[in-house]
Amino acid sequence: MTLVLGIESSCDETAAALVTGDRQILAQAIASQEAEHSPYGGVVPEIAARAHAERLAPLVEKVLAEGGKTLADCDAIAATAGPGLIGGVMVGLVTAKALAMASDTPLLAINHLEGHALSPRLADPDLQFPYALLLVSGGHCQVLRVEGVGTYQRLATTIDDALGEAFDKTAKILGLGYPGGPAVERLAREGDPAAVPLPRPLLHSREPHFSFAGLKSAVLRAHESGDHADADIAASFQQAALDCILDRTRRALSTMEPVTALVVAGGVGANQAIRAGLEGLAAEFDLPFTAPPLPLCTDNAAMIAWAGVERLAAGCAADPLDLKARPRWPLDPDAEPARGAGVKA
Ligand SMILES: Nc1ncnc2c1ncn2[C@@H]1O[C@H](COP(=O)(O)OP(=O)(O)OP(=O)(O)O)[C@@H](O)[C@H]1O
Ligand SMILES: [Mg+2]
After folding, report:
1. Which stretch of 34-48, 64-78, 276-290 has the lowest confidence by average pLDDT?
2. Whole-prediction pTM
3. Which residue pairs, CB below 8 angstroms and at least 24 apart, start in 289-292?
4. Which residue minimizes the CA distance to atom 4 of ligand 1?
5. Which residue has its alpha carbon closest to ligand 1 atom 19?
6. Which of 72, 74, 118, 304 has the fewest beta carbons closer than 10 A?
7. Can you tell me which atom of ligand 1 is nearest the CA of 179?
8. With a 6 A CB cut-off, is 179 part of the ligand 1 pocket?
C-alpha cells in the first residue's frame, strides 16, 4: 500500500502527516502559531519562518513514531513548494529535500492549492473528476473545474481580497483577534443578518469574478458609525459574503462544462453558513455537494500527503532535489489575470 509523508509550512501552521493510498491518515500533527502572531493581528513572515524551523523536525519524528513507520517505509516525501510565504515554504521544502536525500526516497513538490483542491477526495472516495471547486482560503477565492491531477481550469477569481482575508479584517475591526473566521462565525450566530445594510460587490455582473474590498470598507464604516451591535455587523457581513459567493459561483457553474459535483475546500469552507448555502446551490444544478471535514479545510499536512498519493497514482515523476520554492504558483497557468481595483497589473 502506498505511503506518503506530507509536510506543510506555507503560512502559520507547521504540519506533518502520514497518509496511505487507501485514504488512511495513519498519523498527523499540527503546531499552530496563533499565539505568536495574534499580538500583531496577522501573520508576521519572519516569526513564521523561525517557528517552522524550530518545530518541523520534531513533528516529523512524532508522526513517524505514532504511525509506527520509518522514512524507508515511505514511497515519497511530499512537501508544499508554494504558493505561500517564501521563508516558511523554504523551511518545509529544505527539510523534505534533506529527508529525501538521507533516505533515498522520492521528493514530491506539491502546490499548496492542489492540496486544498484534492483534499475532498481524501475524505470522499466516491468523488470523481471532473468536479467544480470553490476554493476559499486566506489567500485565494476561486472557482475551478478540477479535471484531474495537475489539470485545473480557473473560471473565477477575486479581483481584490480573498474571502478569508475579509473575514480576518472584519474580525480585526470588531476586536475579535486572529485568526478571525471562526470568531466572526460564532458572533454572527447571535446577530441579525439583515440589520446592517452592506454592499454585495459585483452581484449579477457577467464575469463570474469576486470582490470583497468594498464589503470590508463598508464593515469598517458601519463599525465606526456606532449605530450597530457587533453581532449584527458580523451576521450582516457573513450574509453579504454568502450572497456574493452564491451569486458568483452560480454564474461560474452556469458557464462550466459538465461536472460530477460541487465541492468546497480551503479554510473558509469550514464556515457552516457557507457550507449550507453551497449545498442549496448544488441542488439548483442537480449536483451532489461535498465538503471535507473541518480539520481538512484549514491548512494541514494530510492534504499535502494526499496530493502526493494522487500524483504517484497518476504516474507523475519525482521532483529534482534542486527544485526551487515558488511563492507564486497558479493552479491554472493559462487563466487570464483578473483586473480590478486593488489588483496590480
Ligand atoms: N469558520 C470559518 N469561517 C470563516 N472563515 C474561516 C473559518 N475558519 C477559518 N476561516 C478562514 O480561513 C482562512 C485560513 O484558511 P487556509 O488555512 O486555507 O488559508 P491560507 O493557507 O492562509 O491561504 P491559502 O491556502 O490561500 O494560501 C483564514 O482567513 C480564516 O479566517
Ligand atoms: Mg491554505
Report:
1. 34-48
2. 0.95
3. 289/261, 289/262, 289/263, 289/264, 290/120, 290/123, 290/124, 290/127, 290/131, 290/261, 290/262, 290/263, 290/264, 291/120, 291/263, 291/264, 291/265, 292/119, 292/120, 292/122, 292/123, 292/124, 292/265
4. 181
5. 138
6. 72
7. 31
8. yes
Residue 146 CB contacts under 8 Å (≥ 6 apart), including other chains: 117, 118, 129, 130, 131, 132, 133, 152, 263
Mutate to test the pocket of ligand 1, among 9, 10, 11 (most ligand atoms within 8 A of CB): 11
> The domain 128-291 belongs to what CATH superfamily?
ATPase, nucleotide binding domain (3.30.420.40)
- Looking at domain 3-117+298-313, does it have CATH number 3.10.105.10? no
Side chain identity at 293, as an amino acid letter? P
Q: In this structure, which residue's CA is closest to atom 5 in ligand 1? A: 181
d(CA 249, CA 142): 9
pLDDT digits (tens, 9 = 90+) for 297-323: 999 999 999 999 999 999 999 999 999
CA–centroid distance, 72 to ligand 1, in Å, is 34
List, by residue range, all CATH 3.30.420.40 domains of the chain: 3-117+298-313, 128-291
pLDDT digits (tens, 9 = 90+) for 198-251: 999 999 999 999 999 999 999 999 999 999 999 999 999 999 999 999 999 999
Place of cell 529525501: 100
| Distance separating alpha carbons of residues 191 and 50, to the nearest angstrom | 39
Determine whether the shortest distance from the Cβ of 177 to ligand 1 is under 6 A.
no
pLDDT class for 340, splitting at 50, 70, 90?
low
